[in-house]
Amino acid sequence: MAAQSPSPARACARGQTLAQKLVARAAGRAVVTPGEIVTCRVDLAMFHDSSGPRRLAPMLRELGAKPWDPERIVVITDHYVPADDDDSRAILRFTRDWVREHGIARFHDGEGICHVVLPQKGHLRPGMFVVGGDSHSPTGGAFGAYMFGIGATEMLGVLVTGEIWLRVPQTLRIEIDAPLPDRVVAKDVMLHLIGTMGSDGGRYRAVEYAGAGIDALPMQERMTLSNMTAELGGQTGLIASDHVTLAALREAGVDVSSIDASSWRSDVDADVDERVVLDAAALAPMVAAPHSPANAHPVGALAGERINVAYIGACTGAKLADLRMAAAVLRGGRVAPGVDLQVAPASVQDQQAAEREGTLGVLLAAGARLLPTACGACAGYGSHRFGPDVRAIATTARNFRGRMGDAGSEVFLASPYTVAASALTGRVTDPREIA
Amino acid sequence: MTQRMTQHAAGSAAPRTAGRVWALGHDVDTDQLAPGRHMKLPVPELARHCLEDFLPGFAAQVAPGDVLVAGRNFGCGSSREQAPAALHALGVAAVVAESFAGLFYRNAINLGLPVVVCSDAARVAASPWARVDAEGGTIEIEGGHVACEPIPAFLMDLLRAGGLLPHLKARLAASAPKTQEPS
Questions:
Q1: Do residues A231 and A202 lie in contact, with contact meaning Cβ atoms separated by under 8 Å?
Q2: Which of A81, A228, A421, B41 could form a disulfide with A190 if both were Cys (CB 3.0 to 4.6 A apart)?
Q3: Count of CB contacts below 8 A, A vs B?
Q4: Is residue A20 within 8 Å of A168, Cβ to Cβ?
């Protein structure tokens, strides 16, 4: 790991977007122009048990190659955790052996979902250029790093060369003019954007979130915005670093003294491809009906739809901030008869914090069932999948038919506030109606 | 969500190198192509489950050389490379779509699966067969040709090599110190 934190090229910093500055630095250039293809040096490569060693090792062997720099690799197990059959156990065993064999010190085994664990363990900082072996890798953009998801063969290319090609992206700038209203949160913003722009509205551009509404947003809420950029079809979801970023990094044990946070932002005269301004006051809690995140509507349009599972899980929906939202609604209440409220915290660290402060206790007292801290039903890989009769409302990212369970199951997507409110009534419910 | 999935019978006028057309709708996601519950399996086995919830029998009926034709946002969702890998393993010659999810597009090229952007994909979908010239930017169909976006030269190199793995192999071989000729 480079001891020094990255800084943008100073000479030609005018008129560049944050995305351009981040890519230019990684490409060793003063400036880059959207559309051109450049080769970038990778500061950090993150992958998990599914996309990682089991897929990479055979290809590395075929090439007779070794990872270019074990210090720049982070491996996290989350998809086959906990292992509940022989195949899953074999995948985890292989992952552990591979990490040991290649001397990778930054290995987090069963500590939570990669996109939450990566920053929590202090691996990210503004200015970095990072690739992740998972589609929700844009989450790292919340920390002012250019982070995006790639597949296993492309990760092999990174491991062998330390580089990756990139078409310099245009920027889609999303501005929120003011702090969000009560019980309207990042998940609602993203479902609103995906619903209005479509799940390909991002057109693989760099999405940048800005404005007074973003300035006021806590770190984990910012992560939810960046995370769901995947569902908007953006390549990465960037947020300029500020005092909120630095505070989160400090909490993760990062020495922030050398971080040049204020320079990792778009110039005021930078050209953006498209600018969308959201009127915060007009935003409402949103719900995406089966079977697409783009099938999003204000909660009122779907209120009353019956549900029998309320699922609070995933990197996008079960961080400490998300668990607190659910607890605020569930405090002193009890889930409706026939509703199975499932909580799968996004990281061990968040689960322990929720336990210490009483948040977890509130959820359990309301009737929640605690599930393992891992990707769980959101990824749909393990034994914990929804049966054909499940009608769920979930804080997860995708409700594609059959993703989280049987092809007959149905999933509504919503914020932790809305999922908790719906758990209390057994119907899709506006969280602003619960005291 | 996929709106429409039909498979045409092979037309008698199809050239020998053409493949049958499988017409799909918009937003075909990675979880349809490579279902999560089968992600533990090696690709050749996983491929037998490709599209099984949405187009039962697809994996058994698709033949090498066939062409998938879809609407917008093909391959949205996960980074799982098994989605294009399954199509490749089944012998699909190319995917033609109005647009692709960026991650899927990169993954497909890296595996050597031609992915072609065509604003007139609906016309291709209406033909029983198609022959895709990814480099030239044309698709031959029954009764004519349809223009598509040519794949950039940089990516054509990867495709011609058969994907990123063979490309890397050649690159490593070229940069390796010269060994003595065997006598």
A1: no
A2: A228
A3: 123
A4: yes
Calpha distance A259→A328 (Å, rounded): 35
Residues in chain A closer than 8 A to B54 (CB atoms)? 401
* Tally of structural domains, chain A: 2
CATH number at residue A406: 3.30.499.10
Using a CB–CB cutoff of 8 Å, tell me whether B42 touches chain A.
no
> In the predicted model, what is the mean pLDDT of residues A335-355?
98
Q: Is B173 on the interface with A (CB under 8 A)?
A: no
Can you list the domains of chain B with their CATH numbers?
6-175 (3.20.19.10)
Rounded to whole angstroms, what are the CA distances from B116 to A297, A397, B71? 33, 28, 12
Burial, B105: exposed, middle or buried (Cβ in 10 Å; 0-12, 13-18, 19+)?
buried
Does the distance separating the beta carbons of A385 and B37 come in below 8 Å?
yes
Tokens of B2: 């996929």
Please give the Cα distance from B74 to A82 (Å, whole number): 32
Cβ pair B164:A157 closer than 8 A: yes
Segment holding A45, helix H or strand E: strand A44-48
H or E, element range at A349: helix A348-357
pTM of the model: 0.95
A265 residue type, one letter: R
Classify residue A269 by burial, with Cβ atoms within 10 Å: 0-12, 13-18, 19+: exposed
Centroid of chain to Cα A350: 15
Q: Contact B118/B146 with Cβ under 8 angstroms?
A: yes
Q: Which domain holds residue A410?
A: 287-433
Averaged pLDDT for residues A113-137: 98
Among A115, A148, A153, A155, which would you mutate to test the B interface (most chain B Cβ atoms within 10 Å of its Cβ)?
A: A153
Residues A206-234 pLDDT 10s? 999 999 999 999 999 999 999 999 999 99
Integer Cα distance of A211 and A221 in angstroms: 14
Q: Based on the fold, state whether residues A130 and A206 are members of the same structural domain.
A: yes
Of B27, B40, B164, the CB nearest to A153: B164
Same structural domain, A293 and A274? no
